[in-house]
Amino acid sequence: MSRLLISADVHGSYATWMTLKSLLKPDDILVVAGDLFDTRYGRWGSPDFQPDHIRESLKDMKNKLYYVYGNCDDPSYYPGHVHNLTFEYMGLHIFLHHGHAYLKEHLSRIDLIIQGHTHLPSLEKKQDTLFINPGSLTSPRNGLYTYGIVDTDKIQLMNIKTNTELISFPIHPYS
C-alpha cells in the first residue's frame, strides 16, 4: 500500500533530495510543500546547492509527485505546477500549499492541510481538519530534522536522526 511521504523546504540541497529519495518505497507518493529548488535566492556558492540535479532526477523518478511552488521557487525554473493544489488520497481531501501566503479561499471539505515555509514541524487537529508542517530536512529552525508520513491508519511526524515518531494522529475518523 502506498504512503504519502511529506517534505518541504529542501532549498536545492542535493543531500536532502537524496535522503528523500532513499526514504521512498516503490509505491510511495512524494509530497513537497514548496521551496524544492530555491532558484530565487539560492545558495549558489555551496557545493550542496544542486537544483539542476534535482530537476534532472525528477525526470526519471517513478514515484508520483505532488509539488507546489514556495516563495523561494521561481515557477519558470520548473514550469507546470501551481502554488495551491487539492488532491485526494485514501478518502482524505488534502490541500497542499507552501504557507507563505494568506489563504483567501474557504477550504470546505478539507481533511488535511499540508504546508511548509516555517521550517518548524507541527501536527495538530483543529475541529475536523488535520494540519501538518513537515519541518525541514535541510535547515530546521529548531534543530529537529523532520518529515511527515501518511499511511493507511495514521499521519505522523518523524525525526530522521533518531528514526522516531514525534507525534501522530489516527486518520480513520477522517476517511
Automatic annotation (TrEMBL):
<dbReference type="GO" id="GO:0016787">
    <property type="term" value="F:hydrolase activity"/>
</dbReference>
<keyword id="KW-0479">Metal-binding</keyword>
<dbReference type="Pfam" id="PF12850">
    <property type="entry name" value="Metallophos_2"/>
</dbReference>
<feature type="domain" description="Calcineurin-like phosphoesterase">
    <location>
        <begin position="3"/>
        <end position="154"/>
    </location>
</feature>
<protein>
    <recommendedName>
        <fullName>Phosphoesterase</fullName>
        <ecNumber>3.1.4.-</ecNumber>
    </recommendedName>
</protein>
<dbReference type="GO" id="GO:0046872">
    <property type="term" value="F:metal ion binding"/>
</dbReference>
<dbReference type="InterPro" id="IPR000979">
    <property type="entry name" value="Phosphodiesterase_MJ0936/Vps29"/>
</dbReference>
<dbReference type="InterPro" id="IPR024654">
    <property type="entry name" value="Calcineurin-like_PHP_lpxH"/>
</dbReference>
<dbReference type="InterPro" id="IPR029052">
    <property type="entry name" value="Metallo-depent_PP-like"/>
</dbReference>
<comment type="similarity">
    <text>Belongs to the metallophosphoesterase superfamily. YfcE family.</text>
</comment>
